[in-house]
Specification:
Helices cover 22% and strands 28% of the residues. By secondary structure, the protein is of the alpha/beta class. A hairpin with an 8-residue loop joins β1 and β2. The longest helix is centred in the middle third of the chain and has 15 residues. The model has no long low-confidence stretch (mean pLDDT 85).
């Protein structure tokens, strides 16, 4: 594989982050970088990988602080610690974000967000 975007290789997929509908996984790249990956053929389909990359690039363009992100590849050389979280069906391109330990997980429900928006509009 190869092209305009320099992709990295996923060395290991260790565990599911148990957060969000896209089922992100904690992984290591070949260079040892700790990352969170969203794999091909995930629960939300492959379009989410494109969306993540485009949103990342837009955030960089408008100056939002972001962890380093990019495109990576899972293949037969990727070590998967738990076969229930990834398999050969996930081979291919994936999206990664550099892991940031000790960050707060923000998961407000859609109802709370909509309620806040509606209060603001009224």
């Amino acid at each position: 594989m190869g092209g305009i975007i320099k992709e990295k290789h996923i060395a290991q997929i260790q565990y599911n982050m148990n957060i969000g509908v896209t089922e992100p996984k904690y992984a290591l790249l070949d260079d040892g970088t700790q990352v969170i990956v969203k794999l091909a053929q995930g629960p939300e389909g492959n379009l989410v990988l494109f969306n993540e990359y485009v949103c990342y690039r837009l955030a960089i363009l408008i100056g939002l602080p972001m962890p380093y992100c990019g495109i990576c590849v899972m293949d037969e050389n990727t070590e998967v610690f738990d076969s229930s979280i990834a398999s050969s069906k996930n081979y291919g391109h994936a999206f990664y974000s550099t892991y940031m330990p000790k960050t707060t997980k923000l998961l407000p429900s859609i109802d709370s967000i909509m309620s806040a928006i509606m209060q603001y509009i009224k």
